[in-house]
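Dear colleague,

Thank you for sharing your sequence with our group. We've completed the structure prediction you requested, and as agreed, I am returning the results in plain text so they can be pasted directly into your records. Please verify that the sequence below matches your submission; if there's any discrepancy, let me know and we will rerun it promptly.
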Amino acid sequence: MKNIHKKISYSLVFVFLLGLVTFSCEDDDSIPRRGKPELTVMSNSVTVTEGETAVFNIDVEFAVSEKIDIRVDILDDEGNPVVTANPTDGDATTGNGFYDRIQFEDVEVPYPTWFESGWFEYGYLGGTGYVASFPPFTESIELNIETIQDFLPENTKTVNLRLTSTSLMAATISEDISVTINDFVGNDLVARLNWAGDYLESGADACDIDNGLDLDLELIFGGAYIQTSYNDCPEELTILGSDADGTYIIDASFWTANGNSSSDNSNIPATLDFMKAGVFVESVDLSALFPLNDGGLLDGNGNAITSFTIEKTGNTYTVTDSNNTQIASGRFADHRMSLKEKQALKGNN
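Please find the predicted structure tokens below.
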């Protein structure tokens, strides 16, 4: 009986020790694991407002001593990857040459395109995809997709993307994600005067501050000039939602042709846009007001100016022209500032 008891005791001790070893092996993270970790997206859909960054949290099954690469593809309506880089030189079918990054309307993927990453390392990806890389021993990943804020009032949009492993295969992933983008609705009114282009016979850039054309914007409130935009193209002014309520005047003017002219006295293709993000974008064509050969205010053309009135009540703006027509073609108006005063402001002494 004593020998039987000893055998049973030894067997129990052996099973107990085996259990400890097994438990220790399963739970000791210090023991290197073999194979490739699986990457799991914690939430496959994120909703943001235009201009915000959609963040996707990704769990790494276990850390590895190599960097982890994830291929990110933007998908079209049929679920196919779209091209992210266009060839500017070389053969697009082989990946030889140079490629320009494509800009999208709704999102910006803040990672290198397949070409910028070095297509020779990851293999030719067919012109699609970005490569997001994360350092060795990463245990969790935040993958960012940036959204683009614009002024246009649009319906809610959804952009679909696909996450897959690269050819280096330090980790495995195959998941689709989506970014739902709501309109950004702003409180500010932006006025933007633009006349860019290559239409000058001299060959000069119309926006060249030294050799092109000079158009201006000025904002008046309570009889005083509170903002001017003189040195940019396009010129831009902003009335903040937090600014005082009341009546604002915006003057858009043609300052000087800088010696440029045209054989047919063509009009400067100037437009003035009034924009309230997510609410309205209204464009006024000012080209008929600014024949190039007539020159600007500095060139002796006193008619090269037009005015708009903005009535601000809280975050509501009503824009009218000199004829009290809401968002319509402007009319010639006498400039309020003397040429000498404006020359001093612009530095044209």
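Summary note from our side: The longest strand covers residues 246-256.

Kind regards,
the structure core
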